[in-house]
Design a protein that fits this description.
The chain is of the alpha+beta class. Helix content is about 30%, strand content about 20%. It has ten helices and 21 strands. Strands 1, 2, 3, 4, 5, 6, 7, 8, 9, 10, 11 and 12 form a twelve-stranded mixed sheet that branches. It has a five-stranded parallel sheet with strand order 16-17-18-15-19, with helices on both faces. The longest helix has about 45 residues. The radius of gyration is 31 Å and the shape is globular.
Length: about 675
Amino acid sequence: MTAELVRGQNHPLSESRLEIRISAGGPVVVGATLSGADGRVAGAEWVAHPASHRLPGLEVSRQAAAEHRLAVDLDALPESAHRLHVLLALPEGVGGPSRFGAMAAPFVAVTGLDGAEVASYTLTDLDSESAVVALELYRRQGAWKVRAVGQGYAGGLTAMLLDQGLDAAAETAAAINDAVTRGMARSVAAPPTPAAGGDAGARRTARVGDSGDARPDGSSLPGGASDPSGSSHPGDPGDQGNPGGSGDTGDTAPPVTPVTGGGPVSYRHPGRQTTAPPAPAPAAPPAAPGTPAPPVAGDATGWTMNERLYNQVWGMFEDLARSTAAYRSAVDFAESRLERELDKALSDPRTRVGPAADAVRAEARAKRTDLVDQARAVLDRDLAQLVAESEVVEHALPPAFARWDSPVWQGFQMPLETPMALRIGDLHLPERTDLRIPMLVRLPLERGLWIDSGRASGREAGLVDADGLRRRAMETAVAQAARLLAVYPVGDFSLHVIDPAGAAGGALAPLLSSGALRDAPAAGARGVSETLQRLTRRVDLVQMAVRSGAVDSLPPDLDTAEQLLIVNDFPHGFDDRAVTQLRYLADEGPAVGVHLMMVADREDARAYGPVLDPLWRALLRITPLPDDHLADPWVGHAWTYEPSLAPAGSEVLARVLRQVGQARRAYGI
C-alpha cells in the first residue's frame, strides 16, 4: 500500500533493503549524503555521487539521466549514520534546464525489492532552484522512517552541501559536475557487436551489480536488477516483432555467446527455436457472442491490489455516470422528437383532428416508446454488469474502503501502513438505487469535512426533527473519526473534539469509553480557545520547520502525528479570534497534517455574514441523511450521498474502537 506523501510528512519503513526510484522531466544528477545525529555530513567520504557512487549500504547511479534507481540497505549503513538524504541536482554545462521550475515536477518513490511502492512524493512548487533535497531516511527510536523534504537551493549543489554541513562543499560539487560533464563511468556497459542477421534486442547486455542500471533500449528490469543473460523479456520495447531476425516475430532469441579470442564459436542461429515448444494449455471454451466477461476484483491498473481496487471503484463510478447520461440523453431525444412530430401534426389541417390525427399521434408516441425501451434495455444491460462487478469488488475491499457490515471488520487488526484512500459514504443514482458506489477520498485528507446538521432535503428529511438531525450528524462524525483511527497505524493519528455546550456526550461515548479519544472534549469558551491555540501553534511550527529545512528541531513535546479536530455546534462558543483561527486551520492545516471536521448548520453562522463563506467552500459537505447534493464533473449528475454508518444494533464500531484503544495503551499513547 503506497503512502503518497506531502512536504514534511513521514512514513515508517518496515523493510531494510529498499530501492529509491526517481523520475524527472530531464536529466538530473542524483546523490545521497549520510549524516550523524547532529545532522551534519562529516566529510566528503559520506557523500555518494557519480564520481564516488558507493558507500556502505548505499549505491547511486553513475550518470545524469531522467530515470534513476538507488539501492539502499539500511542495516548495512554505518552505525554513526542517523540520516540519509536523497539529493537531486541539475547538471551544469550540458545544455539542459538550469532550474527545476522549467521542467516537470520530479517524482520519487521508495519501493521494496519486489517493486511494491512503500511511499512516494512529487516535488512541486520548485522554481529557481537547481538542487533539492528530495527525501530523508532517518532513525527514530530504533526504527527507520522516510520524510518528504522538498527543500530547494537556488545556489545549486554547493549551497545544498554547505547547508548539510560539509566543509568541502565547493570541491565536492566541482567533482560531481566534472564527472557528469566528462561522462565519467557510464552505468550501462556497451553491448557486444551483434552477429549478422541476429536479433539485436535479444542480445542486450547490462552490467550486473550496478543498482539502477538501465538497458540500452531505455527500459528497466523489474526490481532494479540487471539481467545476467542479456536476453530481452516479453513486453520490453526491444521484443516487438524481432526486427532483423529470421521472421519468427513472436519468439525471443536466445543469448548469443560473444566471440572472444580462443573461445568456442557458436554456430546456432540466433533467431531459430532449437527446442520443442511446450504443449499448449487446453483452451477454454469460447464465450457466447455478446456475453460479458465475468467481473474480477482488482481488474484495473495499479502497482498494488489496493491501488487497483481504488481505480476500479472510480472506474465503476465513471461507467455508471456515462451509462446513465447516455440513457437520459436518449430519453430527452425521444421526448423532443415526439414534441416535434406532434407540433407538425397540429400545424397541418389534414392531421389536426379526426382519425388521421389520432393515427399520427399514436405513431409518434409508439416511436418515442420504442426509443425509450431500447435505451432502457442498454442501460439495464450495463447496470446488470456493474451490479455484478460491485458485488465482487465489495467483498474484496480492505477495511479503509469497506462498509461497516463487511466481514473484513470481523478479523480487523491495526495496520502497519497508512491506506491510500478512505470510504466516507456511498453514491447512487435514481435509475438503480440498489447499485451503490463507494465514495473514496484520498489520504491524507486534502480538504476538511463539513457534516451538515441543518435542514435536509432528502427523502428521509421529514422523518427526523432538528434535534434528531444534530444527533445523527454527530454520530456520522464519530463513525468517520473511528474509521480514520482504525486505518492509520498506531500513533500516526490523533483526535481532538470541541463541544462547547457538551451536547455531543452520547455520540462521543464510544470514543471516550474505548480510550480512542484520549482527552475529554473541550468545553466552554476557554476550552475552545486552548484547543485552537494548540493546533494553530502546531501548524505554525511545522510550516516554519519545513520551510527552513530544520524538521528535526521541532519541540520534543510536539505531536507530529496526523491530527483531526471535530468541532460540534459551530459557532456556539466561538468569538471572532476563534473563528479566525478555525479558518486558518481549514486553509493551512491539511498541508501539515491538521484536518478539520465540522458538525454545523450554516444557518447558525449567518450572523458572521460572508466572512465564513471561504470556510464553507474549503470543506467537503456531507450529510447525515441521504441527500442528492453532490454533482460529478463529467456530466453533472446529482448523486445521492449516503453516509457510511454501522448497521443498527451492530457492535462492530465499538469492537473496532476497543482494539484502537488497546493498541494505543500498549504503545503508551
